[in-house]
Amino acid sequence: MGRLKHGFLGLMAQTFASTPQTIYNVLANDTTFSNYLGTYTFTGGSTANSIAILTPGQKLPYLESQTGLECIIHDSGDIERKDYVNDTSEFLTTWKVFLIVWDGSTGSDLDAAVKRAMHLFYGSTSIETLSVSQGLGARVQTMIMIPEGGGLHQDAVDILNSLP
Questions:
Q1: Measured between alpha carbons, how far is 35 from 27 in angstroms, rounded to an integer?
Q2: CA distance 140 to 148
Q3: Residue 91 sits in a domain of what CATH number?
Q4: In terms of C-beta density within 10 A (0-12 exposed, 13-18 middle, 19 or more buried), how is residue 105 classed?
């Protein structure tokens, strides 16, 4: 699960997106978000919701096709150093999540999925990073930036608490 922070009066109940796995667990198990996801089809015919954690540039092994909206969570992020007056430092990561529209999905699906993800992760922002003509593969791609220190909405915390 995400990490807890110590506050002025002790341990705060807020949970944070401290790893790509936390982001994956929230998004993959949020019914509203996962309803927007498309389908991966793998060699041999098995299928799965199109959400994965990948190293930038990595391909999913044995993937034959992708339809609908895809969600790729990078396993590396942008790291920022926070320096404090008392000479201590903290490193905070901003994680990148890419939502990609393939055949079988629309820009409206993308917008709805982005809004849901941003609802779940406080402080997140998004930007369109790719727009191409039909027939050239992905139609549009949006990057969501999720700051580690932004905190999780109670809906996300409830999802994490429900997992084994």
A1: 10
A2: 26
A3: 3.30.2000
A4: buried
